[in-house]
Amino acid sequence: HFASGQANVEDRNNDFYTINEGLRFLRGRTIDSHDNIVWVSDLNYRVSLSNLEASRHAREYIHQGNIEALLHHDQLIREMNQGNVFPGYKEGLITFLPTYKYDVGTDIYDTSEKQRIPGWTDRILYKGGQLRQLQYSRAELYTSDHRPVFALFEADVITLDKEAKFKLQKEIYQSLSSIEVRQHPPELPKRKMTAPLPATKDPLVDVLIDISLDTPSQRLPPPSTDKRKWWEDGEGLPKADKTQVNTQNPFEEDLSNSHLTDGSLI
Fold first, then answer.
1. How far is 100 from 115, CA to CA, in rounded Å?
2. Which residues lie in Polar residues bias regions (predicted)?
């Protein structure tokens, strides 16, 4: 609802810019961020005839059905043609009678002391390459001092092919995953390596250190040098007594004294 009053054209123009620039939607979008826009409002633009005699002439034009004579003085048409308001917007051809101001509940224009000049205060403007206006008219309702307007549009609508979108997303994901693997191959888990046993010519039993000696110094080999390393030849190690080493696998059962009875092992 823009500013009212016969002479307040500039205020109405300012109302448009205040709303158009000040209204914000999600993600900072404005009205002009949209592809197709429709304004349906009581814009309050009047017919620029100011005196009582002009009002009488206006009513005569209406009675004769000569609405073109009134539209020639329509403030909104004039301001849009001059580029002062609603830049880039269109309005369908007006073929209906002025929508304001009526005595409520009647088909009679204002009979009050003010004798307001009939005009098209209620308008529908649109902008967008996908919109085509098929109808523009007014509804004959009597509950207000206005007659409401309506319009019928045909619009092109872009729909989303969800199946094609999902397929494309999957292909892109697989392509990017393949590039990532080639550029940054995954690291295989590292196995902890243990030091090898001494590479000696003697059997393993021969190089067992006797830990039963009295002092730590007796259990340790002599220090290695640049020419000899004790772990390479095993010399100098205090050897365990092989005669006391049990070489039998502890997990193997001694079956020498076992007897079979009725097919059972005892």
1. 11
2. 257-266
DSSP string, 75-94: HHHHHHHTTSSSTT-EEPPP
pTM recorded for the entire structure: 0.62
Q: What is the pLDDT of residues 167-223, one digit of tens each?
A: 998 888 888 877 666 666 667 666 665 555 555 555 544 445 555 555 555 556 667
Distance, in Å, from the CA atom of 82 to the CA atom of 157, rounded to the nearest integer, reads 32
Reference 91, options 16, 31, 147, 40; nearest CA is: 40
Using an 8 Å Cβ cutoff, are 121 and 160 in contact? no
d(CA 109, CA 101) in angstroms, rounded, equals: 6
What φ, ψ does residue 160 adopt, rounded to 5°?
Answer: -95, 125
Q: Name all domains of the chain by residue range, CATH numbers in brackets.
A: 9-155 (3.60.10.10), 199-244 (no CATH)
SS3 assignment, position 225? coil
Candidates 5, 3, 8; CA nearest to 18 is 3
Please report the DSSP string for 110-167 in residue order: --STT-PPPB--EEEEEE-TTEEEEEEEE----SSSS--EEEEEEE------HHHHHH
Q: Which value, in Å, is the radius of gyration of the alpha carbons in the chain? A: 50
Rounded to an integer, what distance in angstroms lies between the CA atom of residue 123 and that of residue 45?
A: 9
